[in-house]
């Protein structure tokens, strides 16, 4: 029987392990941290019994993933929960842009900009079933739905700044801008529209759900599936050299390229080593968890029912803040994401105290304290928030990297998503998972399709490994 070792237990590492084990490979997953899950873990950082997600929080791509959604992880205890409102983007004066799962309701709420939203985002949502496999594939692949992909590509290739001109009012422009800002890139960069389109269309197609009990429930379900297939997970185990894994037929690395290069050492071909050394890191996140009494007193009505709230003001404000962080400058008003997962999943709360998940976009390796900047952005749109806070826990870029080694400098996307790196992630190849070392594959978010809890990087890397194994 063939054997494999997976180094790293994030969603991609576990997805790779499950796919290999389902094909009859004996799999061991090795994790350096005390707990498995990578960016998909949960804890109680503020007060006992108040559950917060450590990084990933809302999971549209997990619910839409051809691999994860097809596993039937409900049999392993995973339960999805949806908020009433998928996303609110408050503006000064109580205005807001609102993203409902119902496309027609979203279009109606955007008034005169509704038809343009339907023409751009709605078309992608209507094509979603055929597009999802294409957009979650490597950039160089033979498309199964070329016309749908071509229609999507004509819009997706544009900078978000150009796409935003299709809307006239601040509500629609800011709503789309906040979604596109998930790219951690200047909104003037090509292809930033693609991020806004995919995430907005996914909200209409499947919603932005949370995992009941916390995001750890996703990786716990994957772990249970792996164990049912005969695989195992070993935590507190650090691998420093590929020589420690000699004897395994396959090795899959849920690691950032620089870490993979260190582990592979002189076995790594020079061309791959150069590509890995040129791999650029993106801006960082500064995470702040709150425990609050009651709810956030949002001025905007629908924000009080929204699972996710984007705070950044107008499209132009967001664009300036994102441009600043990519230039290494900390904006006075950073773009902030707020999660109110407890609205869909009350099991995370305790005795009237609710968890609030948030993070700000900050420069790479930012060494300052952005806690007050996050609070100020929330207060801007929810006066009185500060008085409801009963506990705070902050985690800056250095702490994020200590918690997850793939998050170098606080880059939770495991690599910048701009320029050539959009398609050369981390190499330009039909098989970007291959390291050039026989039987060794990279399966982290540094490979296509990139960041997100979708497991597709692990699944596709495992597929490439199985193909190699069958030809050996």
Automatic annotation (TrEMBL):
Task: List, alphabetically, the Pfam families matched.
Answer: NAD_binding_8 (PF13450)
Family matches, as SUPFAM superfamilies: FAD/NAD(P)-binding domain
Query: Which superkingdom, per the lineage?
Result: Bacteria
* Family annotation (InterPro entries): FAD/NAD-bd_sf (IPR036188)
Instruction: Write down the PANTHER family for this protein, in alphabetical order.
Output: DEHYDROGENASE-RELATED, PHYTOENE DEHYDROGENASE
The protein's name is: Phytoene desaturase family protein
Supply the source organism for this entry. Answer: Sinomonas puerhi
